[in-house]
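re the bet — no i am not wrong, look at it urself. input seq straight from the record:
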Amino acid sequence: MTLAPLERLPPHDIEAEEAVIASLMVDPEAILSVVNILKPSDFFREKNGWIYDACLALWNRDEVINQITVAHELATRDQLEAVGGQVYLADIIRRLPTSIGVEFYARIVKRDATYRGLIHAAAAIMQMAYEAPAEIETVFSRAESLIQRLRGGETFRDFVHIRQLLDAYLEQDPAEVERLERSAIRTGFSDLDTLLTGLKRSDLIIIGARPSVGKSSFALGIARNAAIEQKANVAFFSLEMSAEQLAVRLLSAESGVDGNRLRLGQNTEIEERRVVNAAARLSEANIWFDDSPLLTVAELRSKARRLASEAGGLDLIVIDYLQLMQGESTASRENRVQEISYISRTLKGLARELDVPIIALAQLSRAIENRHPRIPMLSDLRDSGSIEQDADIVIFLTREELYVTPEQWAQQHPDLPESAYPHGVAQVIVAKHRNGPTGTVELRFRHRIAKFEDWVLRTDDQLD
């Protein structure tokens, strides 16, 4: 009689399990081929898992692994008789007296363990669906986390000798090098792109600034440049501003029309044409906004994965801003430093998982306002020192005009003309660059339309 789906035995291969543990007892070096593939819990037959665990214990103590030592280890755990005694150990060695193919057998065991994990995950997802909680996104997030843990457990990277890495580098196809260079997301600001050589996939980029400096406008500019100039798919998570506000900001920057006039509908006929043309350009850009005000890292991961699947991949994720995100539980929020550490660590993992650069905006502490000169430092990142540790790139934005009036500036610089006052000058400070140089570049900030530009684009009649 055919068993119903839920009555079938889950995937397993007892012969492969016995082949693995027999190989370990006849060849002391065999464990090196399987220790990074299998865990004791991967064995379907519990007693085989016990034997494997005993072999691991001997190996960890630098003791010889053979039938006698394994039997002794099991006896000290009161498990020898339960596994079938010396008779069972001798029998599997008799049936497989060689370790040839041990890695192949180990991967069969691991594969079946993964399938069993999928079955358990499906049951857990089914149970969550039956419970029908009010927040469906929570169910999606937990379901995807279950699957991702299984997928992550299947991924394994072993040691690689430097010769292999260098050979691969020297033999790299020039076309492949060019492809990788093109895959980096350019910020659209020439001096900054020269310094960073673009934003690399799997990197976490932190952009920090005090309020009103323009970090949201800066991030919007990068998103716009990537989507329009590189045809990139961009996900923009805004926890502070609504999607409508962001769209109007982008439209103002793209058209060059004052944002206030744009919102009030006070455009001239010429401005209206510019707005229509700008809207047409932006409508072709692949930028998706999510303005959920209460966003957990699990929800962000879930939404990003889903968008990546629907859009055919993601090229850039922007989060505005990091300190407004939430951890997974109310309890974790009791310690904000630990929660922010968890969030930054998870974002770095998500960048690697999706193979996409993630830009996370961050608020800086007030300490900068009490310093002279007011140049941001890594220690100014609020709530957690782990932000700078997890980040591949840390960029600070600052504008001197926010702290010094023209009169004060003239008093501080009597040898310079009034026209040298840093009106519209923004400093972009690359304070950390894991794979390259640090440094500072200057951009022009156009107040009226909240837009950052390269100085090469500056014309005197455009000053605002």
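see?? The longest helix spans residues 102-131. told u. also The chain has a mean pLDDT of 81. so pay up
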